[in-house]
Amino acid sequence: MSNTSPDHSRRKFLSRTSLIGLSASITANSLGVFSLVNSTTTLAATQSDFKALVYVFLNGGNDAFNMLVPSGNGELRHAYEAGRGNVAIAKDTLNTITPVTPAKVFANDDYNDFGLHPQCPDMAQMFNNQEISFICNMGNLTVPTTRQQYLDNAVSLPPQLFSHADQQRQFQSSPVSPFQFGWGGRMVELLTDFNTTSLVSPLISVAGLNTLQVTKDSLINPYVMSNDGATPLYGFSGTRKTMIENAINSIDDNSHLMMKKYRDIFLSARNAEEIVGSAFDIAKTNGVDYDAIFDAAGGDNSVIARRLKTVAKMIAGRDSTGNNRPIYFVELGGFDNHQNLLSDHQDQMQQLNAALKGFRDSLIAQGDFNNTLTFVGSEFARTLTPNSDKADAGTDHAWGGHAIIMGGMVNGGHLFGTHPDLKLNQGLDASNGRGRWIPTTATTQCNSVIAHWFGVEKEDLTLLFPSVDNFPSPFEPEANLDLIKTGDVA
Amino acid sequence: MKLMKPLIISITTLLLLNACGGSGSNTDSTPEPKPTPEVSKSTVSIKTLTDLAIEKNNQWAKFEIKRVGGDNRANLTIAFTRLENSDITKGSATTDDYQLVYSDGGNVASDLELKANQNSRVIEVRPILDNEHEIPEVLTLLLTNNDNYLLAEQLSAQVTITDAANTRANAKVFLGVFGPQNSAATNASGVLSFIVQGDNEQGVLNYTFSNLGSEQTDQHLHLAPSGTVIKDIESKGAINNYTWDMAPGGIFVNEQQMLDALFDGEFFINIHTANFPHGEISASLNFDENIAPPEETTLTPEDVDRDIIRFLTQATFGPIPEDYQLLRSKIATDGSNSRQVYQAWIEAQLQIEQTSMLSLTDALLPHFPQENEWQIRRDAFWPIALYGKDQLRQRMAFALSEILVVGDDVVTVRNAHRGLAQYWDILASNAFGHYQQALHDVSLHPVMGFWLSHLKNKKENSDLGYFPDENFAREIMQLFSFGLVHRELNGTIKLGPDNLPIPTYDNNVIRQMAKVFTGLSFSAKNNDAVNVTNYNFELGSYTNDYQYRWLAPLKVFPEHHDFTEKQLFTDNDTTIVINESNQQTSERADTELTTVINALVAHKTTAPFISRKLIQRFVTSNPSPDYIERVATAFGSTGDLKATIKAILLDKEARNPSVALSQTFGKVKEPIIQMTSIMRLLNASSQIPLDNATNGLNLPSDLLEHYRAGVTLLRIGEQALGQRPLGSPSVFNFFLPDFSPTGELSKSSLVSPELQLITESQLFTNFNIYNKLLYHGFKRWRVEETSSYNEEQLTVRLQKESFNNIWQNTSGTNIDKATAIVDNLDFYLNAGQLKQSNNTGTRIELIEGIADLAGNNYHFDHAIYAFATVPELVIQK
What we know:
Distance between the termini of chain B: 46 Å
Oligomer: heterodimer
Largest sheet of chain B: 9 strands, antiparallel
Structural class of chain A: alpha/beta
Number of helices of chain A: 14
Radius of gyration of chain B: 34 Å
Radius of gyration of chain A: 23 Å
Low-confidence stretches of chain A: 1-47
Mean pLDDT of chain A: 87
Shape of chain B: globular
Structural class of chain B: alpha+beta
């Protein structure tokens, strides 16, 4: 347990607040505290109440069809090899996986022979241990869409398909315009009861500001940490500290809006610095050697490994934060492989595999694997066909791709949704032969299932995803999105 | 008289009469011979002597009638008529509004009269005072034909009658308070003022609001109670000093009706939001005659001073005393000629020879032979930014580098250090040229070719199943020219018939565009140390010492270029089409590239799209649509960057001194610019001069002449400011032009791109970087190990002598001395905003803090630290 009980921290917080003379409302907003009035309710954060969502975003468009790859000798493998050409991965180098049930394939028979990228042996093992699953050919959609409708311009499409910035925003919110909120940000607003005593935002990012954590009402702001935790402030004491704090305190309601925002970020950082410090202190004393675990997993101190290590420690030290429904944002960049796909993607897959393995082992060691759901996704996958005949060929922006979910609550070992048949110029190809798959599962359908596990009532899901009712219910068997084990749903 | 009567004579009749000259007959296309004037007849004319009559001041307008020739001994009666305003939306005076009186006595009757022996006579237009609010009204007298005289060509004259002069005392103040519209459930609120000038011709609208429940979608001026839209206010968020001419809209057809509705309190402004599409809050414009209009702004010498610093903050890498003094010495005390002086300064900057990053990099390389070349290239930015004489050119290069983005996080881009230095130089050389040329140059630059993968991009081969890469094709449209949707010249989004924005392209266009950028590869390579022509399309992207392949523009290898037809984007209903060519030569492909790039820049949306991004880099995050339109007009269809930078820096919105009190105007300083400002003001330097002084590098004089005196080696190394020139993590730059932070800013539909960088962890990282600068100085990690210089010599520090001087030379208490220090920093780093601000808290805190520390070695450092960290000091207004 923390030596800083929540009530104690709150008193410290309030005394500091009065010291620098801030009005309570301003401070509350800047800290992401919903209501100081409500914060008198007891914390009572019991283990069973706690759930964390860790959202890992692969920035740039992960070439998912080289992450989860058809093997064997069937039609799907043949279509894969025909389309990929010189960027195909030889099947004997894949890490074989054994799905619990065969994958559904668009307009074809089920298919059961798949392997993971050669650099993903641990992910394959986790799949076979039923700790992770894939959601196949998921992507941004406003309504169910067929190839003919697409080619005829006869269907409402997500705005600006194939553009990074737009598809990222929609992937982390929903494909509506104008943008209003990220689904993670909106979700914590709907679940305020779980986070009411929070002194640090339940929206924590270790990878900068992002769409996922944008709230609708703007009262809760994400707290952004560095890769390795809170950034300490050096040389901030004595006269300097008094001078700067008082100067910041003199920003008032009539000040420039950008100054006020800057002040709020400063105050958020000052307050969270201490809380995050005590979360890390807890993580230091729980007997889990995070560095050793991530090293053993081959994490090699990569950015994604450091970020997930920080998240693991924050989850371990959650008693200092008082958040029972935190959402963590993690990112790995560099997936926009227009060239050198095979070699660059190999490095990315190695890093992802090692970091997920280290994260999984840490969570199991600290006893949080069953309450922490990790989602891994990317704004789009890449064209099945390459853009050159050379060994250093790359691939281009496409549409539907595969996502990953990991955790003790996950119905592991499944290939959910529907896999494309990988046939060019027909079926799901939203182009004249480049292999851009129209998604068979909407991002919002998959996210609905995760949100429901997190605590959002089914009838409230349209508050998060306004267009989700355009699709068949993700909770019906036809959707093939039975992501969560029975009994783990809220 | 404010009621509109039907026109007596239409404008066409008037013109016809004018054309008739003295003959009164139709002269059309086949002129008839004019009758010979009879000697006995005079020719009469009328002109305006004073064109303005003002009711409230009893100021009179004056006409003069004249006769020439004929017998002036007789009385002459001249027929005339009064014309109404030819523009039916404007006002016409009626006989209730004025009296016509001869200056030598007597009222004008139904005819005009020249007495015996009078060749001319003055007619006064004496306004009749009433209590009505009237728009400016025009009175036109037209002399008409009569047998007694001939008409001169000058047969009509016009004066205007207004209610009151345009003085402060005569302005009328309308106020409003924003509240929920139709009992919308909202906590939003705000205030409004509309100040109408004395003659009622136009007024200045200001309003601000906050706490909207959802994103703002629109704002309108409506008529109560029906809610008819009178005017769409195109920008979103708070409105500052918007001049509204009260042109008729909605159900109104003339300005008088508008003015009547205004004084009757029938107008309201409302704010539409996503949650309340019909309006979340509204405020009526209510006349309050008891409220005094604000003081008129006359510039004080302090205002003029502050604006000089504002200008230098916008146009350089940071104001320094010598630049300030140069401008100050030429500007009049009241600032009346400041615009001309700024313009002359810009002209002078245009003439300064360019500082070259490649030359400096090459000159420094031999001094660090063991080091990675890219590190030397990265550090070369700092002497250029801090000491380069071509400040405006380099600021423009920096701005362009954030639009035409490449990023040296990518290993090959980084290692192509000479190519990347040259990329910067190309941006600088085009800084005052044409965007068209800049876009052409960067499209064919090998570093861009590698970065966005059109280097060695081959045409489609369906047999082998590969396709041209689409990366560059997409980004040249989405980011480098017109963006995602069609826009008006003022940057607002055009809506299609379905009320949705109109996309500028779709994926088919991208695929067609990708064909344009096929067949490009290196044109040069090294053969040992010799620069030779490259004939191998597949030449490796190697980054050896010479880097000749990275310095020459890419060339087309025709066998790999797609010469089939390309149906590209559509602008103004015209689709750009490149026809299929049988003549498959590199010349033909070059022409195609130039045609397409020129068409991209000429696209109607490119001017506002790029202009807005540039305004955001120099002046303000949220330029008004009018400001964007003025700059976009200067940008034109070729992207005239010389005209553009003048339009940006000299615009009335950029130069408005009253923005110091605005809650929204301006921007967060870019972290790099904030750093260069402090380093320039405090002459950051190492102990290694670039010239031949003691310990100097003795660089050639033709290189040194581009730098100010005192330039030293600045190997500052990696400082994690969240921003590094040519170091963006992606082609989307360090921040997005539309980034709107959650909270009040996004609720007010305001963007603040730079705030995307300011996260909690980045904020503290920045604080720590300044702490390091002040206590330890900057030095690239372990650079001393590959150099003959030691750590102390290499360390870059701020020079604080000028503060010691200020402290010593200021008499009085420590508070007085500290005040002088704080005000000096505030002046140069913050355009004196702290001293000027109504919120004096921060200034006093800093003064007291520094006075307290007197005697401490670090008291100046605390002041500088504060100026790098306190919110009021990181905002540039």
